[in-house]
Amino acid sequence: MSKELTFSIIKPDAVAAGNIGSILQMISDAGLKIKATKMIHMSREQAEGFYAVHKERPFFGELVDFMISGPVVVSVLEGENAIARYRELMGATNPEQAEEGTIRKKFATNIQNNAVHGSDAPETAAVEVAYFFSNIEMVG
Ligand code: IDP
């Protein structure tokens, strides 16, 4: 039984709507441990680098504009099977398809302004954690 790390962002829509506390509570209630967390306001360069895999997608420019429209809360979560468990808690990308009880069902506005990000695989989780956190910040 090995622990896994995943990377989470509470996106600008959810921060602006005052949902940081509720989302962190849902994460905690789901049994995922918060190893590190901080509020940041991403620069355009940071957001473009973070979403580089999507740079050919038609929504890339708008996605970057959205992600730098206000502060976000970035976190490192730990638990067994944390990547899949957090994706399940987040719900589908499009909130219209998200299941009851998921973060996106509760707090997302639309397919872009969808409250949270979570890593989709161990390789991306490692890159995303290192993109925003140094080892010294992983205190939990
Ligand atoms: P995910 O966040 O559920 O993993 P991805 O397909 O990796 O979904 O897309 C990354 C982010 O890009 C989404 O969370 C959402 O904010 C945005 N996005 C995805 N698809 C669309 C779209 O069709 N229109 C606008 N924004 C989109």
TrEMBL record:
Reaction(s) the record says it catalyses: a 2'-deoxyribonucleoside 5'-diphosphate + ATP = a 2'-deoxyribonucleoside 5'-triphosphate + ADP; a ribonucleoside 5'-diphosphate + ATP = a ribonucleoside 5'-triphosphate + ADP
Pfam families: NDK (PF00334)
Stored InterPro entries: NDK-like_dom, NDK-like_dom_sf, Nucleoside_diP_kinase, Nucleoside_diP_kinase_AS
One term of GO molecular function: metal ion binding
Catalytic site positions: H117
GO cellular component term of the entry, any: cytoplasm
Class of the enzyme per the UniProt entry, highest EC level: transferase
Record EC number: 2.7.4.6
Cofactor requirement: Mg(2+)
UniProt cross-references to PROSITE patterns, sorted A to Z: NDPK, NDPK_LIKE
Keywords, ordered alphabetically: ATP-binding, Cytoplasm, Kinase, Magnesium, Metal-binding, Nucleotide metabolism, Nucleotide-binding, Phosphoprotein, Transferase
Subcellular location: Cytoplasm
Residue ranges annotated for the Nucleoside diphosphate kinase-like domain, each copy included: 3-140
Primary localisation category: cytoplasm
Domain of life assignment: Bacteria
Family affiliation: Belongs to the NDK family.
Function: Major role in the synthesis of nucleoside triphosphates other than ATP. The ATP gamma phosphate is transferred to the NDP beta phosphate via a ping-pong mechanism, using a phosphorylated active-site intermediate.
Listed name of the protein: Nucleoside diphosphate kinase
Organism: Pseudodesulfovibrio senegalensis
Lineage: Bacteria, Pseudomonadati, Thermodesulfobacteriota, Desulfovibrionia, Desulfovibrionales
